[in-house]
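Help wanted!
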Amino acid sequence: MVSHYLFLSIILFCLGILGVVSRRNVFIVFMSIELMLNAANLGFVSLSRLHVNMDGHVLALMVMAVAAAEAALALAVIILLHKHKGNLDTNIFSLLKG
Amino acid sequence: MFENFLSIMIFVPIIAGLAIFVLPFSKEAARIIGLAVSVIVVLLGLKVFLSFSGASGAFEFVEHIPINESLGISYSLGVDGISILVLAAAATLFPMVYLLFQTKQKGYYANLLIVQGAMIGAVAATDMVLFYVFWEAMLLPVFFMIGLYGGPNRLPATIKITIYTIAGSLLMLASIVYLGIAHQAQSGEWSFAMTNLVGLSLSGATATLAFVGFMIAFAIKIPLFPFHTWLPDAYTEAPTATTFVLSAVMAKIGVYGVIRFVVPVFDESFARYALILACSGVIGMMYCGIAALAQKDFKRMLAFSSASHMGIIALGIFCMNIQALTGTLYQIVAHATSTGVLFLLLGIIEERTATRNIDDFGGLAARAPIFAFFFAVAMLASVGLPGTSGFIGEFLIILGAVKFNPLIAVLAGTTLIIGVCYMLWLFQRIFFEKPNSKLAGFGDLSAIEILTILPIVILIVVMGIYPQPFLAKIEPSAQRQMAIIEKVQHVAEYRLEPQKSGQELKTGDR
Amino acid sequence: MTHTVTYLGFIPLLPLAGALLIGLIYVVTCQGKQISERLYGILGCVGPVLSFFMAVKVFFALLSLPAEQRFLSHKAFTWFAVGDLDVSMGFLADPLSSLMLLFVTFVGSLIHIYSIGYMAGDQKFGKFFAYLNLFLGSMLILVLGDGPVVMFVGWEGVGLCSYLLISFWSEDTDNVVAGNKAFIVNRIGDLGFVLGMAFLFWGIGADGFDYLSLKANAHNLTAPVGVLVCLLLFVGATGKSAQIPLYVWLPDAMAGPTPVSALIHAATMVTAGVYMVARFSFIYAHVPAAGEVVAWIGILTALLAAIFGMFQSDIKKILAYSTVSQLGYMFAGVGVAAYSAGIFHVFTHAFFKALLFLGAGSVIIALHHQQDIWKMGGLRSKLPVTYWTMLIGGLALAGCPPFAGFISKDEILYSALANGHVGIWLIGVLVAGITAYYTFRMIFVVFHGSPRDQEAYDHAHESPRVMLIPLLILAAGSMFAGYANIPAIFGGHQRVSHWLAPSLVEHHPHSGVGLEILAIAASILAFVIGISIAYRKFTVQVDEPDYSGIKKFAYHKFYVDELYHKVIVAPYQFVGKAISRVIEPYVTDAPVQASGWLYRMCGLAFKVVQVGYVRIYAVYMVIGVSILSLLLSRSLNF
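Answered by r_m:
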């Protein structure tokens, strides 16, 4: 039974990766990252169920807290980026090009 | 009274330097602090020099505080005949810099103070790790002094000297670690103290590699041919005071390092490769000396000249006899004084005329006779005229070289001719010939400049006429070093014998 | 065996102190109001004159001792001592050095006095006397030093002073170049000297590195080292005493003021080489092969310089080449182991050469710095004192029988013949003839005939008394100095040779009277032939001839200077330029540059990966994490 949840978690994670890698809108990329975090959460919770202890739940709560903080920060950055360039295409943010 | 003179001489300048960095001093205040501190160091240095007896050849003014017992690292200082003259040079030459040049920013004085403290530390350290710390600490201020306050092409020169010396230092660090391990393997305890490392018996490929690591580090600092290529750029681009520090003291610490660390610790490898190193010294002397003649920029010419003399000074170590070694130790100071004065005087010219092109000069002897006189004395010392400090060391080195290898000695002797060629030409172009109209406003040295340089000029003459008090302090320690080397040479000869007889046996069998 | 006398040190110290004092006064005052020339002159002459009196005192002190104990010494302090090497700043007066001392201080003092007149009105009057004093002091150290290293101090010191004095009028580039040349060529010789000293030390120097100890140990010196030492020291002598191949600096040294030429050429410096060989006679006597080399180089130099002297037109250059030539004689003398004869020629030469130079200076001053003999003529009536004194000097130089030069030169030639060096003797006689020819060519052209430059002639006037008195004294010396060493055949006792005997290691040849008469007759014949050719050619009115063929070759001094420039100087400069422009940046520095280049290339290579797009970095991350997890899973054996 638990394996289904785990498979779902992996699929969600892969979808997140795909989103991060392939989408050009910063906002979508950010949402994909959130998706990956939640995929991880799902994994934690399912494994917690499997092993019958509460460690996974603790970690899931922890990830949610971090994700919330991170979302606040990231959204602020995104807004600033939009203010700065008027656009959220990742291809225009390439200052690190060697 | 307090007794740890060496620590005070090291840390007073360093702390003063850091204070100037951090606290909001004005440029003038920084200069006065620098001058005051350097005068204190001079007084302490003189105290150490005068009360140093040197008769036993052992370390005096010893300080010892363990830092890390388990690794055998300690804060230990001491002076013996090998370091005393280098120490004296590092301690006494600095006030001139503060008195003569004053256009730089306050950070410059801070760097000068730190570099002085670090140099004294490097010379006084008797623990290898401590030596390494000070050795690295010397480089940093030089990096800033050239990089921030140097001439127009300062950046490439800064990068070159920094990377060059860092590369050498890292090789040395590896070798130092190897020595610690070797000591641990042979005696069961970790130690980096010179007195313990001397007793190591090092042979085999790894030891040779460690020897090479040390030699490259010092060869870069001295500099020995072909590791000298940073020198002309750095000396030319550096502000005069830095050039002075580099040529008069820092290069000598490279020579000192070879004598102090390489000779006694790697005695066997040293004896084996001495001939190659001696060749390197002689080739460097001739190469740089001949190149000096073709320079248009007088600072660059003097840089090559300095490199040329360092070749001869280094040669004295590799000849492995008491005359040459003592000559080298003496020449360290003799050259510091003569080349120092030359760089300072040319620095004064550069400040006043804002040109370094030899062709822009002429006829200064008539305009500035005292200037010309000082320059002439330093020049004569630089070419090794008897009666000046330059002769004693050069003569002893050539004398020793004759015993080591007559061919090397003949080549080394050409320094007498090569040095005169470019020096006379320089003197002719700057001081003789028709006065150049561009220099119409060039007056003689001011009273303060005369009073600053005069003591060194007098020292040059005194050291040429009455060198024995200096030599007497050096010789016992030099004898000790020679005893180590001679022992090895006997061992080497002893080892060669059975091999030979073995070969004879083989041929006999056939 | 040696007696200690503390005043020895003062003999060189007095002129040196004078130099320091005058130098200080000059440096301090030269920008503002200078002190009077008279004061400078007095200050300048005090040191040398006092030294002369002390030299006389030393001479009598030695005279009062029995012959084999004539060694006075004074060790001032230990100069430097390292290991076995122990060099003290010590002075030694023995018969050899006392003889040198006497005429060096005597002639030197006269030249100082003469200079007061010659340099009158010069801007750098004080500086000149400071240098002159320094020069004399260095020469006295050279002569009085009790070992080779102390000798070397003076040896280099006179080299330095010659540089300073030759380039004295330093506004003119030619003078400075001549000074540089003198110093550099001397330095080449000094290299030989230093190496010679080093070999000598490792040979026999461990028990003391002064003459007396070395002399006592000389028999321990192995033959190859002995030859090496002798030849290396002789290299030093060729530099200082202007012998082949290092004679080239001396004619150029005429760029200096005339008293300097006189000082360099007559009393000091150039005689140092001969003195040195005589000083080391205890080694040279053991290795005749080295002596042979010395003698042949000497006599060939004598011949070469005499040939050059025949064609010169500058009065000072004629005298310069005659100096080189006479020095050749001296080396021929010491080379054939006739050390006392060589030193005796040094002694007489000091008088007549100083006389000739100072006389030439008098002529030059009279004609307002005209030195070309083809613009002079008929000066006999205008400058009578100069003429008569120069005539005496010329006769002495040419080897006219009763004069000093004849006796000393004949001694050398006879020794060469008696010791079996017939070739050297023959060349020597030939050179004697040539010497007579060019000396009187000069005298006849300058003083006889009619003026070639009427205007200069009209303005010519005899020099002041301060210049003439030294001339007269030196003329007396040139006439009578030879009587100090009259050989037995003329009823003399060879006093100088006997006097020098304790200092030297030499064996006087005992050959027949016939040989001696032959030598004397040949010398006189050569003199007569030489002077009569000159008389026939130059007492009539002639102008400078146009030389062609071999004469032109000789007029241009066999193009030796040009050859040296092409073969040594130019390649040296070329190598210097090549190193600094090509080798240094592109060869020696290449590995350093290459390592920098390598880093830059690596950077360029890795730069490709840095595309700047966030998602590509995400891809890298994904790939990295995947590989890591794969490895992790492998290692955990799932």
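OP: Thanks! One thing I noticed: Chain A touches chain C through 15 residues (CB under 8 Å).
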